[in-house]
Design brief:
The chain has about 675 residues and is of the alpha+beta class. The chain folds into 3 domains: about 160 residues, Roll (PH-domain like), CATH 2.30.29.30; about 325 residues, no CATH class; about 100 residues, no CATH class. About 35% of the residues lie in helices and about 15% in strands.
């Protein structure tokens, strides 16, 4: 679905044509949104004002608002510099939001201050003056229908609530899109779909004491939420696995996900059920795991949630229940989505207190601490078994982080994408339940028990945040940049792609059997140009440089090496070493998007240097020594100093010189005492 293919399927973006509809305001200018093949407009409002974010004055962009079966789209009547974002998404415009990215909808009185939450099954008032949409990526869109024809606001509100919160899974746009898909995935991307994919990983890790079983793809399957292929100890029979699975939650017996040639392996497992023989079943399987180690070393079991019958942990040393994690994330969202300028400054004056109260960074630090513990044991050639609940949430987070610490392959872009395919898709993370989407299948077949298990929780967001923290601590060890992680965070809520659209591989297979077209998000050319994709790569990346801890980098000492140990990254695990992921969470807060600020300036400079090096190498290879001397002046003349960008590049408002985000009138409305508070984010050292 590249730009060439889309050109014939899109309607004009700003095809302005006056139309007299005889309604409230007489002549109404109308524009049309871009539409994909299969996309239909289900609600529209004209003469709509998109209010300027964090502005106490009722002004903004004038245009039309559309709800389609794919997105919420605001089309301004006239283009301006504000319409040009540094990162251009081929599928979504600067004022568009995929319906599955809509987190909350609020009714307003036409402005940003007074509002009331609009629920999917709630009553709709007869007249809607304004809407405020809080997206899952913390973008806030506020619309006023004061100048719109009568009934337009209510029509859009009803269409948005109906289509953004569908009752059936097959109503999502991925089931309706008619655009053909021609995959151009990287050749080194492992999708972990077929047994051969797992065999390739087993051979890459050089682990001869483990075997592949496909029993989970037969009628004797015992781990229904995982794919057909599992890797288990060579000494375990399929019959023994089936018997033991009855004592583990969701049948999640310990399965192999990574290993090293010396013998240590990383396994994931669900918790034991409170049965009479559960402890015995676990002991039998762990004994088989021990026998898979050449030195017969007993495995180290890490209980991530502290609810295990075998070894309950202290409350402060475990990860929270999913409901508590969701509550923590909600507080983070409140901090990062103020709806008025006054509210922004009030929150800014209490920034660090509110951040600490959310406890989000504590959960991030705890996940990294668990991963560091697991990596330390693996480096010491000790097998690690991660155990948690159904084995599909925190197990996936900590397992991914552990492999990022010990395996350089997963620190590349293709490796990281393969890691997500393995840990989150092949082993069945319930994305529908965690993202708040309807479950696949007939709603009548979903029991009340199933509904109670559909707990929304930002588990995948937790992984991306942890990965970003590691990137900050080891800026030259990862091939991908924070822009890649932020873009992936956005793409996870784009329901055109099937990667994050199902609860388990079986649900995906059933959909494919009904002619569902799979469209993995990893084909980034579907959304971005080569120029935008270039920003996914970290200019500081050095794959062959010995890893060092943050402490060792400060002291310039070399990392002690032991031939018996596995080289690994040793991260800071203290909450004091964690930072707020500003590019992802705060990029829509204009007062913080300062020009010429932030570490992104170094990235932009290094991107320019790398591009110049490539250009010079290409030119030198085609020139002789003599002609090179003659053209020295030309080479130097072509070198241009990279332009300074704003703090949240490439998610800044415009490509041009960043404008001031606060004019004189707005500044005069701010209480100066709020700016002097020691907790203010703007007063914090950069």
């Amino acid at each position: 679905m590249n730009e060439k293919n889309l050109a014939g399927n899109f309607k004009s973006y700003i095809n302005v044509s006056p139309k007299n509809n005889g309604e409230k305001n007489g002549s109404v200018q109308e524009v049309n949104p871009k539409l994909l093949n299969g996309e239909q407009v289900v609600g529209a409002a004209h003469s709509v004002v998109l209010l300027t974010p964090l502005s106490d004055r009722d002004h903004g962009r004038f245009g039309s608002l559309f709800v389609t079966n794919y997105k919420l789209s605001f089309v301004p009547l006239e283009r301006s510099q504000d319409d040009e974002c540094s990162q251009r998404n081929i599928l979504l415009g600067p004022y568009d939001a995929a319906l599955t990215s809509v987190g909350a909808v609020w009714l307003t009185d036409g402005g940003p201050a007074r509002r009331r939450r609009l629920m999917p099954k709630g009553d709709m008032p007869g007249k809607v003056k304004g809407l405020q949409v809080i997206c899952k990526n913390m973008k806030v869109l506020t619309f006023s229908f004061v100048n719109s024809p009568i009934g337009h606001g209510r029509r859009v509100a009803m269409a948005l609530i109906h289509h953004a919160f569908p009752k059936r899974h097959d109503l999502l746009f991925a089931f309706e899109v008619k655009e053909p898909y021609y995959p151009t995935l990287p050749s080194d991307l492992n999708m972990f779909i077929r047994p051969g994919d797992w065999k390739r990983e087993l051979e890459r890790c050089e682990c001869p004491h483990w075997r592949i079983t496909c029993i989970n793809g037969t009628s004797d399957a015992f781990m229904l939420t995982a794919g057909e292929t599992l890797i288990v100890p060579s000494s375990v029979l399929d019959y023994n696995l089936m018997e033991s699975a009855r004592h583990f939650r969701s049948g999640r017996v310990p399965v192999w996900v990574w290993g090293r040639p010396a013998g240590a392996a990383l396994l994931r497992s669900g918790e034991l059920l409170p049965t009479d023989h559960s402890a015995t079943a676990e002991s039998v399987l762990l004994e088989q795991v021990r026998r898979s180690h050449p030195k017969l070393t007993p495995p180290h079991v890490i209980h991530l949630c502290g609810t295990s019958l075998a070894a309950p942990a202290a409350a402060g040393a475990v990860l929270p229940p999913l409901a508590a994690l969701q509550a923590s994330y909600n507080k983070l969202v409140e901090l990062c989505t103020p709806t008025t300028l006054g509210g922004f400054w009030v929150q800014d004056s209490q920034y660090y207190s509110l951040m600490e109260a959310s406890r989000w960074l504590r959960h991030v630090a705890r996940c990294i601490a668990f991963a560091d513990d697991a990596a330390r044991h693996l480096a010491g050639n000790v097998t690690v078994v991660l155990q948690e609940g159904d084995g599909v949430d925190y197990c996936a987070v900590v397992s991914c982080l552990t492999q990022l610490l010990v395996d350089p392959y997963f620190r590349t872009i293709s490796g990281f994408q393969s890691l997500i395919q393995k840990e989150w898709l092949a082993l069945g993370h319930p994305f529908c339940d965690r993202f708040g989407l309807p479950r696949p299948g007939n709603p009548k077949d979903i029991t009340p028990k199933d509904s109670s298990l559909a707990q929304p929780a930002p588990v995948f967001a937790l992984l991306l945040d942890c990965a970003w923290q590691l990137l900050q601590q080891f800026p030259d060890r990862f091939q991908y940049s924070e822009t890649y992680l932020t873009t992936l965070s956005d793409a996870a809520h784009n329901h055109l792609f099937d990667t994050f659209l199902f609860n388990c591989p079986r649900d995906r297979e059933l959909a494919v059997a009904k002619n569902f077209v799979q469209r993995p998000v990893w084909d980034w050319g579907e959304q971005f140009s080569e120029k935008d994709k270039a920003l996914f790569y970290n200019p500081f990346y050095m794959s062959d440089k010995p890893a060092m801890t943050p402490k060792q980098r400060l002291s310039h000492t070399s990392m002690p090496s032991k031939q018996s140990e596995l080289p690994r990254l040793e991260p800071c695990t203290s909450v004091a070493g964690m930072e707020l992921w500003s590019q992802c969470y705060e990029r829509w807060l204009l007062p913080l998007d300062a020009p010429h600020a932030g570490p992104v300036q170094y990235h932009v400079f290094n991107y320019a240097v790398l591009k110049e090096i490539q250009r010079l190498n290409e030119k030198l290879s085609s020139l002789s020594i003599l002609s090179n001397r003659q053209s020295n002046g030309d080479l130097d003349a072509e070198t241009a100093r990279p332009a300074a960008v704003s703090r949240f590049f490439p998610f800044s408002v415009s490509r041009g010189e960043p404008r001031s985000t606060l004019d004189s009138m707005q500044v005069s409305l701010i209480d100066a005492s709020l700016l002097l508070d020691s907790q203010s984010l703007l007063n914090a050292p950069d």
